[in-house]
């Protein structure tokens, strides 16, 4: 009885049906360039946006089919990446002490306090960036 060392992968059709974000930008020499950053080296160009978007879909399909044929890893679209919500963070002992003391004063766990601080800072930064535009 032998076990498979390699995990089963999805069908080719599964990968071909995934929706990858496309970056489209003007080419300095004229026309447009499109790139799928999740698929390294998957890029194309065209004279119009419609032509370029058509070309990138063809390039995406060829990229996936080739990777599948050779057994290469096919990354999932960055829009489908799942995050665990866990972060391991090393900080100075003195900062750890101050944060723990502040959390105790607020009557919450250190974890809850850190989530509050990070969320608050992220919201402030988002508001500043929105006002800049």
TrEMBL record:
InterPro entries: Arc_rbn_hlx_hlx (IPR013321), Ribbon_hlx_hlx (IPR010985), TA_system_antitoxin (IPR051404), TTHA1013/TTHA0281-like (IPR035069), Uncharacterised_HicB (IPR008651). Gene3D superfamilies: 3.30.160.250, Met repressor-like. This is Type II toxin-antitoxin system HicB family antitoxin. One of its GO terms (biological process) is regulation of DNA-templated transcription. PANTHER family: ANTITOXIN HICB, UPF0150 PROTEIN SSL0259. It comes from Anabaena sphaerica FACHB-251.
């Amino acid at each position: 009885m032998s076990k498979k060392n390699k995990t089963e992968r999805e069908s080719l059709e599964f990968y071909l049906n995934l929706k990858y974000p496309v970056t489209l930008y003007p080419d300095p020499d004229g026309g447009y360039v499109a790139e799928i950053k999740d698929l390294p080296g998957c890029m194309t160009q065209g004279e119009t946006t419609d032509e370029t978007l058509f070309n990138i879909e063809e390039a995406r399909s060829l990229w996936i089919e080739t990777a599948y044929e050779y057994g290469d890893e096919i990354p999932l679209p960055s829009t489908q990446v799942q995050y665990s919500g866990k972060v391991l963070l090393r900080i100075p002992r003195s900062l750890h002490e101050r944060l723990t003391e502040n959390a105790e004063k607020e009557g919450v766990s250190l974890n809850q306090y850190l989530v509050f601080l990070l969320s608050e800072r992220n919201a402030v930064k988002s508001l500043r960036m929105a006002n800049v535009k």
